[in-house]
Known about the structure:
The complex is a heterodimer of chains A (284) and B (490). Chain A is built from nine helices and 17 strands.
Amino acid sequence: MHRILSKERLGPEINRYVIEAPQISRRRKPGQFVIIRLCPEGERIPLTIADADPEEGTLTLVVQAVGKTTWQLADMEEGDEIIDVTGPLGRPTHIERYGTVLCVGGGIGVAPLYPITSALKDAGNEIVCIIGARSADLLIMEKEMESVSDHMLVTTDDGSYGMHGMVTDGIKRIVVEEGRKADFAVAIGPPVMMKFTCLLTGELEIPTMVSLNPIMIDGTGMCGGCRVSVGGKTKFACVDGPEFDGHQVDFDELMKRLSAYRTHEKEAMDRYSECRAETGGGGR
Amino acid sequence: MDSKERLAIPPHPMPEQDPAERVDNVREVPLGYTAETAIAEATRCLQCKTPFCVDGCPVNIDIPGFVQAVEDGDFKKGIRILKKDNLLPAICGRVCPQETQCQLECTVGKARKDQTKSVMIGKLERFLADWEREQGEFEVPRMPPSSGKKVAVIGAGPAGLTLAGDLVRMGHDVTVFEAFHKAGGVLVYGIPEFRLPKSIVQTEVDYLEKLGVEFRYNHVVGKTLTMEKLVEDYDAVFVGTGAGLPKFMRIPGQNLLGVFSANEYLTRANLMKAYEFPRSDTPIFRARKVMTVGGGNVAMDCARTALRLGAQDSLVVYRRSEKEMPARVEEIEHAREEGVQMHLLNNPVRILGDENDWVMGAEIVRMKLGEPDASGRRRPIPIEGSEYVLDVDAVIVAIGNSPNPLIPDTFPDLEVTRWGGIVTNEVTGQTSVRGIFAGGDIVLGAATVILAMSHGRRAAKAIHIYLKTGRWSDLEEAVAVEINQSQTSS
Ligand SMILES: Cc1cc2nc3c(=O)[nH]c(=O)nc-3n(C[C@H](O)[C@H](O)[C@H](O)COP(=O)(O)OP(=O)(O)OC[C@H]3O[C@@H](n4cnc5c(N)ncnc54)[C@H](O)[C@@H]3O)c2cc1C
Ligand SMILES: Cc1cc2nc3c(=O)[nH]c(=O)nc-3n(C[C@H](O)[C@H](O)[C@H](O)COP(=O)(O)OP(=O)(O)OC[C@H]3O[C@@H](n4cnc5c(N)ncnc54)[C@H](O)[C@@H]3O)c2cc1C
Ligand code: SF4
Ligand code: SF4
Ligand code: FES
């Protein structure tokens, strides 16, 4: 059992949790994730470890409620327990001194970007951070990102905060208009955002790493459900990734595979919403 | 009763759920013997002076012994004899390929020139185990004093479970580390409920817990904790991580929506109970016309699971003929009865997708059999120009699994074969690293439950002696001596 020690609202439908998981918190490295299960009939879902405190034996997870399981988590409170947490899974991020690194985060992707940025900063890189969201209220972890960046730019699609535009517009401004040179880029966010970011960094000839989020089940390389095409080869994101060379990834295939269970997901969510309505939120 | 009369008794079939009904539920298909039928079936055994059946069993169960006990109605004695050599009879009785093992060698079958007429050893084994479980009380053996030695077992499949059970009864302190949230390995995530009810596996696990085995779930060794740490903290380590790496066909279309590995399909259905969706949270794609590629138990399980998930048509495409199919005969029969269509001597060359990349068909080529290959089976050769298209909307790839690479990858000291299996001593299960043993599918590649069990059993003996004596380089001899001694003393 893994107790939720704290829960903090970061935005609409986005929460930050600190949970007990001493063994994992000691072992984890930036870029790795856990698989959690909330209840006996529950689904296994992957979540990036956004931060960890090995002394306290805790992990930080930042989760956006998008469907049944993540909503159920959103309805849990401090003191509640998560039955299964497995990890740390996936390969840790390869950290080295590149020079200047663009750290590009979109939406909930800022959460997994944070520990990587922090590690890159510690390795002596100059960090230029560009984070974006659809609107101001959806922007998360601005302060945390600022604390590990040398330069920072915020974009919102609707212009409600920071620069009006998407993160790709932010990259253009910094690299093309301001002429800042970048040696490496990390882009994490929704697949579309990563796709267009990679198209742009490809043109700008900036090597780019992305972190992929295909549907997973076991997270140990056993099912092949998380397979992605990278450079024309099939890779299992849970054991070969989740990070890959963004210029090699077939994002269109990834997006299609992510949509495979859309009708099921809706069905599960509708049922859960009914339960929530009956019990007045919360409840399992 | 003399042998002639015994030989004249026909085998007793086990009652089964009606095929038309059972495709709509996940309950077990064969329903079990009653005590009367079991006794009647046991009466068919000739109690051979040289029981060849015993040689056919990979763990050499005293078959005439337990069958006699059934005939005598002394089921308690029967189960005791069985459990001496097989810790998991309820499971082996159900899933062993009996027709190629114990029952292949049975004298009755040979005398009747038809091995399907052999004594139904597996069914009797299942009967005894079920009888014991229904009594509700397991004989908990008297436990020896603690040896003070600690053993770590990685993987809670049949190999690991057997080993854990043996070592705990020898007085060692046993901890099992399992990646999943449940114990059983393939028995829970692969083999479907309708063939092996999960409550049976759970009973075995509960029993081990009662004996004092400690289970740590959600522990992926190599990730959550390292091999190095286990080697440091434990006096011996056993690796039983199975053959969990799915093989995919290298053909166009393998990443289309609706193409699954057998592992994914069965894990969603079994371990995550997707057949209860949306009562359970894990979804599974409910296809109309499902094609499963392969000819083993795994393929049969997928094809039959598809029917239970509502497919109208379930086809098996296999590149050789029925004779070469590695599946248990009973599984092929059950699949046929349920309406699975076998497309034998056929092989997919391409999976076709619609405009949204969902599977909409498969291009198939017909095959013929050529000369036998290294495995002794005749090699399938495509017949040029024979391609045709099958209309299907889901494809399950069940062409085999390779040893799980996670441990060898994170602990390169372990010697592995070219195809990824851990190299071990055949008698003791010793690996190339002192104190580390291995067994089951991680050594054999995808094999059988009973072989995995026998590996667990052998390694348990070896580990026991290793812990007692500290011998390593000549452990095999020490084990041989011990076995000889126990044979002369009993
Ligand atoms: C390596 C990795 C790290 C991730 N880290 C985070 C994180 O830090 N914070 C966060 O909010 N989300 C993260 N995700 C995504 C998160 O796992 C999904 O949002 C979650 O599984 C959705 O479950 P649900 O039941 O709430 O929604 P569903 O209704 O099941 O699905 C809603 C959406 O989530 C996708 N999804 C469904 N099941 C899975 C699954 N098993 N794996 C991946 N995606 C799935 C669906 O394609 C769909 O787009 C990560 C995913 C991966 C693969
Ligand atoms: C669908 C299917 C049907 C089958 N049908 C039959 C049949 O009818 N008859 C028969 O005899 N055989 C059958 N088999 C084969 C049989 O199930 C296997 O040979 C047997 O289960 C192997 O046992 P094992 O203990 O070696 O490994 P497994 O049963 O594979 O168990 C390995 C365990 O190790 C765990 N693990 C893996 N890596 C790690 C790690 N790093 N850390 C911690 N834990 C880990 C896994 O989660 C798993 O629980 C079938 C197999 C499948 C897939
Ligand atoms: S364990 Fe398997 S091979 Fe041995 S007697 Fe039982 S059914 Fe036959
Ligand atoms: S070979 Fe057949 S008849 Fe003979 S002892 Fe074995 S089961 Fe009985
Ligand atoms: S999640 Fe099953 S192989 Fe990656």
